[in-house]
């Protein structure tokens, strides 16, 4: 039996693609283990799958001042020791890394122990963790054709992003009863990225009375971002994060308002959900969501509004326009040649471990 270690964490975008690979890896009888941080979102998301989870110490890349920036180097050093020890004991045939800071010590320890490593980059330009991991990687998978040029030729493979297949088989009737939605009004799903977005939450809540005149709204608002004043509002349901219920909610959803995280938008494309993207501004990130959003807009899959120029009126107008023209967007998405990423990646894993 071949053993694989999956790693990735920090935000759900670095974990859900690993989850998407699980059914196929289990079909092929892989013994799957996971390495993540002691308390990151990955621990919570992975534990319900019954896979052995191994925690290591991890730092975090902060774009703001924090005292933790001074203690993090020690945590990273400890993480390196822990990762090496784990790999020596587990002796995996391969490591698959979805990125995020916690993966850096894991892939470097693997290289030292001559264990092959595949890393996957979801965004158009490689994130810092993956840049640091590049030299240790046997192969680097990417999601956008544009990324190929930024990677070493002999390592780069265009695979797309693995999408959890169960998302495609939700039940709208279950969602309606779970959400307590009674009217026949169309449903808008609002998702501010896996950690939520204060800017999107505030904007949506400001226009909520107007939105609820014509729509019902499911709001994924992120940890600690529920608004208790809106708890009993008819036609509005808010959640910090949805796990297994997400597929049913997607099945009931007519249109989506979302951040432009790479996995989120690839899921919307697979599900053919007309969507309005409000990308994370470049001042708060390295600007990849803007690139993601503009690429999807150009292909006719998405409408895009930028956070800096967003007003209540513009949001309402755009939502109505999107809903009225939803068929056009769905048709455009049907003609996309999004590939079967799970098979491509698992074939690569098989090729390297055989
Ligand atoms: C703030 C930030 O740095 N964002 C980055 C982060 O986003 P983030 O972690 O938000 O990642 P994505 O938007 O790519 O993916 C979010 C994932 O969480 C899932 N989900 C979300 C909410 C929920 O309630 N339930 C649920 O299952 C989505 O279905 C999706 O699979 O990683 C992405 C992939 O590298 C980047 O493109 C984003 O720029």
UniProtKB/TrEMBL annotation:
Subcellular location: Cell membrane
Binding of UDP-N-acetyl-alpha-D-glucosamine, residues: 11-13, 164, 194, 289
Sorted UniProt keywords: Cell cycle, Cell division, Cell membrane, Cell shape, Cell wall biogenesis/degradation, Glycosyltransferase, Membrane, Peptidoglycan synthesis, Transferase
Enzyme class of the recorded protein, top EC level: transferase
Domain of life: Bacteria
Catalytic reaction list: di-trans,octa-cis-undecaprenyl diphospho-N-acetyl-alpha-D-muramoyl-L-alanyl-D-glutamyl-meso-2,6-diaminopimeloyl-D-alanyl-D-alanine + UDP-N-acetyl-alpha-D-glucosamine = di-trans,octa-cis-undecaprenyl diphospho-[N-acetyl-alpha-D-glucosaminyl-(1->4)]-N-acetyl-alpha-D-muramoyl-L-alanyl-D-glutamyl-meso-2,6-diaminopimeloyl-D-alanyl-D-alanine + UDP + H(+)
Topology in the lipid bilayer: Peripheral membrane protein
Pathway: Cell wall biogenesis; peptidoglycan biosynthesis
Enzyme Commission (EC) number: 2.4.1.227
Pfam families on file: Glyco_tran_28_C, Glyco_transf_28
Keyword Glycosyltransferase: yes
SUPFAM superfamilies, alphabetized: UDP-Glycosyltransferase/glycogen phosphorylase
Domain Glycosyltransferase family 28 N-terminal: 4-140
Entry-linked CDD domains: GT28_MurG
Domain Glycosyl transferase family 28 C-terminal positions: 187-341
InterPro entries with a match to the protein in the record: GlcNAc_MurG, Glyco_trans_28_C, GlycoTrans_28_N
Coiled-coil ranges per UniProt: none
Cited function: Cell wall formation. Catalyzes the transfer of a GlcNAc subunit on undecaprenyl-pyrophosphoryl-MurNAc-pentapeptide (lipid intermediate I) to form undecaprenyl-pyrophosphoryl-MurNAc-(pentapeptide)GlcNAc (lipid intermediate II).
Family: Belongs to the glycosyltransferase 28 family. MurG subfamily.
Protein's recorded name: UDP-N-acetylglucosamine--N-acetylmuramyl-(pentapeptide) pyrophosphoryl-undecaprenol N-acetylglucosamine transferase
Protein source organism: Ohessyouella blattaphilus
Name of the encoding gene: murG
């Amino acid at each position: 039996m071949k053993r694989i270690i999956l790693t990735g964490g920090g935000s759900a975008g670095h974990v859900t693609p690993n989850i998407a690979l699980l059914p196929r890896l289990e079909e092929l009888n892989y013994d799957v283990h996971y390495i993540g941080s002691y308390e990151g979102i990955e621990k919570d998301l992975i534990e319900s799958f019954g896979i052995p989870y191994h925690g290591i110490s991890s730092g975090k890349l902060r774009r703001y001042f924090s005292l933790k920036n001074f203690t993090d180097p020690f945590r990273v050093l400890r993480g390196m020791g822990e990762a090496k020890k784990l790999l020596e004991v587990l002796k995996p045939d391969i490591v698959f890394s979805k990125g995020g800071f916690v993966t850096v010590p894991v892939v470097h320890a693997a290289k030292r122990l001559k264990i092959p490593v595949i890393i996957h980059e979801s965004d158009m330009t490689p994130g810092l963790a993956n840049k640091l991991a590049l030299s240790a990687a046997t192969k680097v998978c990417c999601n956008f054709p544009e990324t190929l040029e930024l990677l070493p030729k002999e390592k780069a493979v265009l695979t797309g992003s693995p999408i959890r297949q169960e998302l495609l088989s939700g039940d709208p009737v279950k969602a309606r009863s779970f959400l307590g939605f009674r009217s026949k009004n169309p449903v808008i799903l609002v998702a501010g990225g896996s950690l939520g977005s204060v800017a999107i939450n505030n904007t949506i809540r400001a226009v909520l009375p107007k939105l609820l005149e014509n729509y019902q709204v499911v709001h994924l608002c992120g940890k600690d971002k529920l608004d208790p004043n809106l708890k009993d509002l008819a036609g509005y349901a808010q959640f910090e994060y949805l796990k297994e219920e997400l597929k049913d909610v997607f099945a009931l959803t007519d249109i989506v308002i979302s951040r432009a995280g790479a996995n989120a938008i690839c899921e919307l494309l697979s599900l053919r959900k007309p969507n309005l993207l409000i990308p994370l501004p470049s001042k708060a990130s390295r600007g990849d969501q803007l690139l993601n959003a503009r690429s999807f807009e150009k292909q006719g899959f998405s409408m895009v509004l930028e956070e800096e120029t967003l007003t209540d009126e513009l949001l309402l107008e755009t939502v109505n326009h999107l809903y009225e023209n939803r068929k056009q967007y769905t048709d455009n998405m049907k003609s996309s040649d999004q590939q079967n990423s799970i098979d491509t990646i698992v074939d690569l894993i098989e090729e390297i471990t055989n």
